[in-house]
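Justification of computing resources. Each target in the renewal requires a structure prediction run like the one illustrated here; the chain below, 193 residues long, is used simply to show the kind of job we budget for.
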Amino acid sequence: MADEISSFWGPVSSTHEWCEPNYVYSSYIAEFFNTISNVPSIILALLGLVVSLSQRFEKRFSVLHISNMILAIGSMLYHSTLQQLQQQGDETPMVWEMLLYIYILYSPDWHYQSTMPTFLFLYGAVFAIAHSQLRFDIGFKGHALWHLLMGFNSYFANTFLMYCRAQQRGWDPRVKHLLGYFPYVKIQKPKAP
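Resulting structure tokens:
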């Protein structure tokens, strides 16, 4: 911790302090760059949510974009406080989002319509309970860069899934670009008879 600034949140209780000095810029933000590097994830998830809603995609895609926002906000809270409870709020949504991706990718082909969603839900619940009772310690270098790249990856992956699902549903998907760079899916649903 920087000598001049003390922590507003109290002593660090998380299992890991990442690769940047704590409380250098503010007594409210433990890891400044790991905290602010989540902002693009929130903005891109909001963009994806707006596109998903405006194109009337299935609700699962709105949930996916909201999940991206929750994950980024949880990560911001964790890296700004370095508290164990907020660490769980960062790590548990990562697992839930992975389960949501599995649901979206494989749900059209499931032969057991209730078994797989039930299994995914139970897996997520058991993980959350275990995670609240146990301490997991994983380390990465360049964690702020990881946040930044994962924000873009989440947006691009969600856009790809929306395109694939629109193709499966016969909605004539087209890839358009916002600001000449950010792809989004424009669909034309067939007229109801």
